[in-house]
Amino acid sequence: MVAMTTNSVVPLADAASYAAAVEEATRAAAAYYATGGSTLDDDAYDRLARGITAYEEQHPEEVLAGSPTGKVAGGAATGDVPHTVPMLSLDNVFSEEQFVTWTASVERRIGRPVAAWSVEPKLDGLAVAARYHEGRLDRLITRGDGTAGEDVSHAIGAVLGLPERLGTPVTLEVRGEILMTDEQFDAANATRTAHGAAPFANPRNGAAGTLRAKDRPYRVEMTFFAYGALALPGSGALTDTLGELPHSEVLRYVAGLGVRTAADTEVAPRTAGTVEEVLAGVEDIAGRRAALPFGIDGIVIKADPAADRRDAGSGTRAPRWAIAYKLPAVEKVTRLIGVEWNVGRTGIIAPRAVLEPVEIDGSTVGYATLHNPADITRRDLRLGDQVMVYKAGDIIPRVQAPVAHLRTGEERPIEFPRSCPRCGSEIDTSEQRWRCTQGRDCRLVASVSYAAGRDQLDIEGLGATRVVQLVDAGLVTDFADLFTLERERLLGLERMGETSTDNLLAAIETARTRPLSRVFCALGVRGTGRSMSRRIARHFATMDRIVAADAEELQQVDGIGKEKAAAVVAELAELAPLIAKLVAAGVGMTEPGVTPPPAPGTVAEEAADADGGTDGGSGLPLHAMKVVVTGAMTGPLEKLSRNETNELIERAGGTSSSSVSTRTSLLVAGEKAGSKRAKAEALGIRIVSPDEFAEMVAPFLD
Ligand SMILES: NC(=O)c1ccc[n+]([C@@H]2O[C@H](COP(=O)([O-])OP(=O)(O)OC[C@H]3O[C@@H](n4cnc5c(N)ncnc54)[C@H](O)[C@@H]3O)[C@@H](O)[C@H]2O)c1
Ligand SMILES: [Zn+2]
Asked: Can you give the residue ranges of the BRCT domain (predicted)?
């Protein structure tokens, strides 16, 4: 089953909002067909148009002359070159059911079953008529209002698939769609921004803007796909042939002349004998949409035999022998709020767009790929831009381009990283895709640097550069190797004299005796930062018990839910060899002052619970207290980092928290305490100065 298109409607309550909607739709459509620069995305336009239609059905006497309903191009396009046969739009269906109803109405009208249907992609570009005289392309005309279009012959020569000369010197008009492939779109925007022009928001706008632009100092390429042909005065014998051939054979004939059709794409037109076969074709084309190198917005189904088309005839806006089976919109406009730089397994540094979440085709999109830094430059993307986002099928959403005419002037440039965002090393920018110079070692450098960091093992003198040096020399393949570094090997490294070597070894020696909470934190298990690591360490007391815990036991730790527990268990299983290595190197694996909980399932567990908790901390000064620290610390607390202060609170039996609430027991307020102090006062929470607090926890200050 092909997904039903969302055909929601903008509700219009009264004549005034109806009139405003007509005006807005007309303005949008005029911009859409002229330059591609509409302020609405297609989904928004279609909802507005459906709202207008719904209102007109309810109030037929109020229909405004300027209404877009029932007109080709919503009445917003014009032209002065008459079409020999009107160039119409298409009616839509949005579901199999509606499609089946439509086929029945066609067959009722012609009084017989339709013998064959042509099922083809609905190419998302602009309709043009290409007039060939004796094999030479001499005029290119837009659809305009359907009866007359605009002469855009200046574009001849810039459109792939539309040859200036045919293989045979025939006279005929070929009709089809001009569009930009994704590749042509990217190239067009690169050329545009290089010339200081605003980028196109999407391929369709690119094609619309390019087709009508004259006198540009540069040329950008487009592609043509034919989907029909008709005779012109002077066609001679061809007039009868084109009038009698089934549609599918007209396409084959046109392709034979050297004009491009969709026949050489993944979504080649096909004929189908039954409604079931048509629907299978619809499903097949819809399923290939995401992978196509150009945009489609539906599937067009046409009666194939010439007689059926002739007998069905046409309305003023659309033929009765064809229908567009619309697919859901895959493009929406939303705001670019940030850019993240992620480092892949091999060190590739890839930007990712952070978007104001937007619903596209049934899923919410909050991130989109930006490929590489050059891509950002080429599209002149800026933070705060309204951007066109594309998401079809299972593909990763991508940012097409900014919608430049929606800029407010508040947009800011996107900053590129100067060093690897993961490990801090230099970036190799010589290729389009940036790469951390550490390549596959990037993760290793980052994880060793993290383990040595201040809140983990706190190894002084082991910054990122030194870590890179150790990794490059092959001395370290994980952070456990730090504990078995040999003095001689270190002395052999550049810039490692006796003093720095001995200082480093001494710092590592100190790190060997860090409490479990820090060693655990150093493992870098996802979702276990310093405070979570402390909670885990205080709950289990030893590494053995942490490693032995199953997901259920882990959930007893405050702040660990079901999903996180499972993830931690899985990650710890992977880290088992590293943990064993740390144990072998004599690294501390216990949390001082904490007794391990009884083994799960034993009677002792209940006894301990009755006793008021498993950590036996009831004699501690901050027992069962939630403590918030704010403002500048003075006295004995002054030299402690926030993390060390939090550790102190926990050693003294409390839990630390960063925000004041009714559950807060104590606020330690230093100078410039501000809003947290005011809130604590309002809630009647006990407030102490840093000095008073230092006294309370004096035995735990080391
Ligand atoms: N964003 C805006 O402001 C805005 C304004 C106006 C219209 N629009 C969009 O334009 C659409 C309506 O445009 P429309 O009136 O041009 O109709 P349409 O694009 O929905 O359908 C008719 C057109 O389909 C094209 N087509 C593609 N493949 C074809 C094939 N194989 N056979 C026959 N025709 C084929 C032809 O160009 C034809 O003119 C709406 O979906 C709307 O979203 C958007
Ligand atoms: Zn790196």
From this structure: 617-691
CA distance 599 to 549: 10
Task: Tell whether the model's pLDDT for residue 107 goes beyond 80.
Answer: yes
Cα–Cα distances in angstroms (integers) from residue 327 to residues 1, 97, 600, in the given order: 12, 14, 56
* Cβ–ligand 1 contact at 28 (below 6 Å): yes
Known binding residue 46? Answer is yes
Q: What residue has token string 């279609």?
A: 46
Instruction: Name the CATH architecture for the domain at 438-511.
Output: Orthogonal Bundle (1.10)
What is the rounded distance in angstroms from the CA atom of residue 198 to the CA atom of residue 211?
Answer: 16
Each domain of the chain, given as residue ranges in start order, spans 15-75, 81-326, 331-413, 438-511, 516-610, 626-700
pLDDT > 70? residue 588 = yes
Ligand 1 pocket check for 143: Cβ under 6 Å? yes
Candidate of 5, 6, 42 to mutate for ligand 1, largest count of ligand atoms within 8 Å of Cβ: 42
Nearest to 92 by CA among 285, 376, 297: 297
Rounded Cα distance, 48 and 61, in Å: 20
Question: Is 521 marked within a binding site?
Answer: no
Q: What is the signed CA dihedral for 489, 494, 495, 496, rounded to 10 degrees?
A: 0
Provide the β-strand partners of residue 222. Answer: 159
Q: Decide: helix, strand or coil at residue 214.
A: coil
Q: Tens digit of pLDDT for each residue in 451-495?
A: 999 999 999 989 888 999 999 999 999 999 999 999 999 999 998
Counting Cα atoms < 13 Å in the Cβ hemisphere of 234 gives: 11
136 touches 163 (CB < 8 A): no
Q: What φ, ψ does residue 442 adopt, rounded to 5°?
A: -55, -50
Q: Tell me the one-letter amino acid at 181.
A: T
- Which token pair is 658? 């960063």
Q: Does ligand 1 lie within 6 Å of residue 122's CB atom?
A: yes
Whether the Cβ atoms of residue 648 and residue 701 lie closer than 8 Å to each other: yes
Give the pair of three-digit tokens for residue 281. 């074709």
495: tokens are 């810039």
pTM: 0.76
Does 1.10.150.20 match the CATH number of domain 516-610?
Answer: yes
In words, the CATH class of domain 331-413 is mainly beta
276-285, 493-502, 641-650: segment of lowest average pLDDT: 641-650
Q: What percent of the chain has pLDDT over 70?
A: 96
Give me the CATH code for the 81-326 domain, please. Answer: 3.30.470.30
Topology alike, domains 516-610 and 626-700? no
Pocket of ligand 1, candidates 122, 254, 289, 299: which has the most ligand atoms within 8 Å of its Cβ, to mutate? 122
Active site residues: 122
